[in-house]
Design a protein that fits this description.
The chain is an alpha+beta fold. It has 17 helices and 10 strands.
Length: about 425
Amino acid sequence: MDMEKQNSAISKFYEKSLDDRLKVVGEFATLTLEEIIALKKYAALDFDTANRMIENVIGTTQLPIGIATNFIVNGREILVPMALEEPSVVAAASKAASLARASGGFTVKADEPIMIGQIQLVNIADPSQAAKKINEKKAELIELANQCDKTLVSFGGGAKDLETRILKHDGKEMLIVHLYVDVRDAMGANAVNTMAESIAPKLEELSKGKVRLRILSNLAVRRLARAKAVWKKEDIGEDTVQGVIDAYSFAAADPFRAATHNKGIMNGIDAVVIATGNDWRAIEAGAHAYAGTKEKGRYVPLTKYYKDKEGNLVGEIELPVAVGLVGGATKTHPIAKIAVKILGVKTSKELAEIIAAVGLAQNFAALRALSTEGIQKGHMKLHSKNIAVTAGATEDEVEAVAKIISDEKKVNVTRAKEVLDEIRKKR
């Protein structure tokens, strides 16, 4: 498909058959016949590939991959692959993106891909003096770190800076060295860990102490991604504008609510991270740690909402997004490679920016539902289909059973079986 003719606003995508959905996505992303066939397989991840990825492989498991439609990110039409098991998430993200299109979609920006390597030094007689000596040798230490990854350096990455911190626990002081590394289009764990280990002996020499941990931090505060969108009051209603702001205020004031608020954000973010073969556990750890340290002593929401001068709703998100396009499952898993192709991203920064946009969309959708009709109506409508299948409904019977148990608000297998029997008796 010509890039200028791409459009992610696909009418009633959810009503299309599998073949029709794949045809649309295939044309959008110019997928090959082989890639379409891989998406249709129930086990695209073959044993040999899986066996190279982890140990003791006996098989593989799969998650559904849905396509979130309607996204415009920095002016570019985007289809977003999302891998997860929870109903309503893909639909919610698509709806939120649709409502943002009138204002141009999502404006996004990510930092340079700087990761932090931490080296812990203990048993130091004078930590302050040791820190001074290390800082005096900063340039030498950075050069030493870069010696172990000249390929990364040749692409413009590598160790860029170094800092020292003195921490105290149980009456004992320790010296922590932060090594800041530009990892380019990698997630960066292997590169950072290797560099941290390479300078550890020199740090011991300078500090007269002992090195313990040499490991990357998942609190990637120098690798933040931000997204912003405007939802027009004419499209969502003034009451919804205020409802979303009130819901945000609740999360901003209360960590119990903020935790669930941020979980909703991660519904969208994790789904894209998993689809692209990235480390969702690292993203989760970084996001929640950032929420807990962004404002001293408080766990806060990762998004914020306010009105612009016209009374429209403005939403913003900021969080660490350390993802990569080289190495790991992203380059190994066949479906992950296809997901990256569908997104059309060329750099890790682009991927991080889209992920941030999806997180904001997901959060807006959740707050919109929660502050108006409630979250359960839409969620249970979709969940009722799963219950109907569990009860034994065929493809032709699912919709009818799901509608009845959803309308009755009796979404359970027992009632679904009763409804199924009633339907079959009437035939």
